[in-house]
Design goal:
two-stranded antiparallel sheet, mainly alpha, 14 helices, 4% strand, 3-stranded antiparallel beta sheet, DNA polymerase, domain 1
């Protein structure tokens, strides 16, 4: 099914409309799952009733998480509303409500313990997660040109929602960053002698055939192996896979004696936001640094510290 003309049509439409490869993979997965669930019927011959049955199956039989259910609905809504021009309308389908879950936040001394158990490269990686409030995917996608130590800033490109933003960069990482940049440069020079280099965005390689030789385009954390570009098929060097830092973190948390079982890469981003608010930073500033569209998303961190708004303390504190 993966090579069917219909699925190729969907894939091409997703790329023409500028959807990310992650979204492309997700949408194709759910559309194929939907077709198989209905015994290989063509989606054109189905509609809202079949979509509703599929979503109910996921919720009741498969007991999937709410966000998983939403991902499936988004894929099918794209298929019917935008590609097949068969609007689903009101499905009469009620999402299960997800209660608010407060994010896990580590104390500064626990973060220090974890960092001390990491090797040099991974120490830098998690220092960037915590020091700049990055998602792990954003950290791995850092290119040399995104780093500005003089201004203490870091450009985050094509983040969630396909947006760019600028966040803060600790100058204390200067030595580690320069060392990692030298390592990345050496790898790029070796690759260039063999005729390839870092994977490039969009159609940049066609527009600028020698761009892969420029250090500015090299990933700060290059992969250890060469692979085909997912769009062009050309051999190139991508950034590290996200499984690498996840495995390193799991080992470091155990060695540091941290008992929190839900510590993951995103915990460092949560800790970045919470510690800034605890230090009295303006919530709008934190919102911009995190890249949130709505300040209500950022406000979840004020609940972590027991304050609905940053800087708001109990009136009892004024008496005692």
């Amino acid at each position: 099914m993966s090579s069917s003309p219909f699925l190729n049509f969907i894939r091409n439409e997703l790329r023409l409309r500028g959807y990310s490869l992650k979204i492309e993979k997700s949408y194709l997965y759910w559309i194929k799952y939907f077709i198989r669930f209905h015994k290989l019927q063509h989606p054109q011959n189905m509609g809202a009733e079949e979509v509703r049955a599929f979503l109910s199956f996921l919720a009741i039989e498969q007991n999937v998480a709410i966000n998983t259910q939403k991902s499936a609905l988004n894929a099918l809504a794209f298929l019917y509303n935008k590609l097949l021009d068969q609007p689903l309308g009101d499905l009469g389908f009620q999402h299960a409500k997800q209660g608010r879950r407060l994010p896990i936040v580590l104390a500064p001394n626990d973060i220090q313990k974890i960092l001390s158990c990491l090797n040099e490269r991974d120490h830098l990686m998690f220092s960037l997660l915590y020091g700049s409030g990055l998602r792990i995917s954003e950290c791995l996608r850092i290119r040399i040109q995104d780093i500005n130590l003089d201004q203490g800033s870091l450009v985050v490109r094509c983040s969630k929602g396909n947006k760019d933003r600028t966040t803060i960069l600790s100058r204390k990482l200067a030595e580690s960053l320069n060392k990692q940049k030298s390592y990345a440069q050496k790898i790029q020079q070796d690759d260039n002698t063999k005729g390839y280099g870092p994977s490039l965005p969009f159609a940049l390689s066609r527009k600028y055939p020698n761009a892969f030789r420029q250090l500015s385009w090299m990933f700060l954390f290059p992969s250890t192996s060469i692979s085909p570009h997912p769009l062009t098929g050309e051999l190139c060097r991508h950034h590290l896979h996200d499984s690498v830092p996840r495995k390193a973190l799991k080992t470091a948390v155990h060695e540091a004696g941290i008992n929190e079982t839900r510590v993951n890469c995103h915990t460092f981003r949560h800790s970045f936001a919470t510690h800034l608010l605890m230090a009295g930073r303006d919530i709008r500033t934190v919102q911009e640094l995190l890249g949130h569209n709505d300040v209500s998303t950022t406000q979840i961190y004020t609940h972590v510290i027991g304050q609905h708004f940053a800087g708001t303390n109990s009136p009892l504190d004024q008496l005692l």
